[in-house]
Amino acid sequence: MRRALPTLAVLALGFVLQIAVAPYLAIGDIVPNFLLLVVVTLSLVEGAPWGAATGFAAGLMFDLIGTGPVGPMALVLSVVGYATGTLQANLFAEGWLLPLTVLGVASLTVELAYWLILALLGLTSGFWHAFVTVMLPEALYNVALGLLIYPVLARFLRRDRPMKTLRRIG
Amino acid sequence: MQTSNPENTRARPALLVALVVLALVLTTVYFREGEAGPLHQSRRVVMAASVPFEKVGEFVTRPLRAVGSWVSGLGVSRADLTLLRRQNEELRLRNAELEEARQENERLRSLVKFVEARGLESLGARVIGRPANSWEGIITIDRGTAEGVEQGMPVIGEAGLLGQVVEAAQHSSRVRLITDQRSGVAALVQRTRVEGIVRGSIDRSLTMDFVSRDASLRAGDVVITSGMGGVYPKGIVIGEIASVRKQPNTLAPLVGVRPTARLSELEEVLVLVGAAPATNAGSGE
Prior knowledge:
The structure holds two protein chains of two kinds. Chain A is mostly helical. Chain A has six helices and no strands. Chain B folds into two domains: 41-178 and 266-271, Rod shape-determining protein MreC, domain 1 (Thrombin, subunit H), CATH 2.40.10.340; 184-264, Rod shape-determining protein MreC, domain 2 (Thrombin, subunit H), CATH 2.40.10.350.
C-alpha cells in the first residue's frame, strides 16, 4: 500500500500530462511521451515486477487515449518496464546520468517495438522514414524532458534517499 | 517512504509473460470484437473522462496562443509595436482577447459560407484536444453523439477537408486528420480529372497514390474529393499538388500534395452531419 499510492499518483499524473500538456509541447508533430518517462522512473525505483505492472497500466492508458488497437503499447511498455527494472539491483535511482541514458535507450526501444507491431498489423510502413521523422526525434525529446522531470519524480518516489550524482552499488 | 523490499523487486519472469500474453489477448479481442465490444466501450469511457483535462489544457494554453496570434496579426511598424509594449499588461491581454474574438468570427463566417455554397448540412465544433502521441494525427472536438455526430462523418475547415470522425462519445469525438498515416481519401485533380487516393503519412505529409503514369499533372493543380466510396462529398478541396516526380522503375508518379487547411492550427471545424456516415471509418475511403 505504501508503494501503491505514490505509484498510482504518478501514473495518474502521467496520464493527465499526456492528454492535457504533451499535445501543446509538441515540436512539429513530435509529442513527448510522459507515460514512458513515468514507467522508466518507477521501474528504476521499484524494480522489475513493479516496472512490468506499471508499464502494462501506462501502456494500456496510451492505447486507450489513441485510436489504434488496444494492447500493443501495453505489451511494449510491460517489457521495457521489466527490462529497465532489472537494472534497479545494480543502479541507484538517485543519480541522473545513467537513468537518463536508460530513458533514451528505453524510448528508442519502445518506438522501434511499437513501429514493428503496427507494421505487423499493417497499420504503418516505411521504417527509415519513421525512424528519422518520429522515433529518433521523440527519443531525444523524451530524454530532454527527462532531464527536468526524472529527478523530481524519483525524489517523490524515493524520499528516503536524496538525489545525488551517479554512483553504482559495489 | 521505505526502501523497496528485495523480495518485491526480484525479477519475476512469470509476471512478465502473463502481462505479455494479456496484452496479446487484448489486441486480438480488439480486432475481433465489434464497435460495441468492451474495449471499444472502454475507449469511449476514457475519452469522455479525458475531455475535462483536454479542455483545461486547451484553455490554459489559449492566452499564449492568443498573444502569439495577436502579435503575428498586428500590421504595425516596429515603433508602434514598441509603443504598444509600453502599455500595461491588462490592456494588451484585452486587445489579444478582442483580436481573438474577431479572428474567430471571421473563421466561423468563412466556414458557414463554405458549407452554404455546397448545400451541406453541418454542425460547428471547437477543437479541444490535439494529438497526444507522435504516431497519430488525431484531434478531439467538443461535439458527440448527443449533438448528432456519428462515426465516419467528414470534418471540414474553412480551407477544405480536415478528416473524418473515427470515435464518437456523448459530448466529444475524435477526428482522424487526412495527414494521419491511416487516412485515405478518394481524390480528383480538378484541372485534368485524374483520380487517385490521397494518403497521409507518419510525418504528416500527403501523397496522391494510384495515379496513372501518363496523367498530366503539375505543381499547383488543385486536388478535390472525388466522392467515390461515399465517405466524403464530392468537390471538397483537399490541397494542391506540391511536386510530381516520375521515376523509371515505378508504375505511378510520386505526387506530393500540400493540404490547404492549416492542420496544426485548427480551432473551429464543421462536422458534415448531412453526409452519409461511412460504415468503416477506420480505413478512410
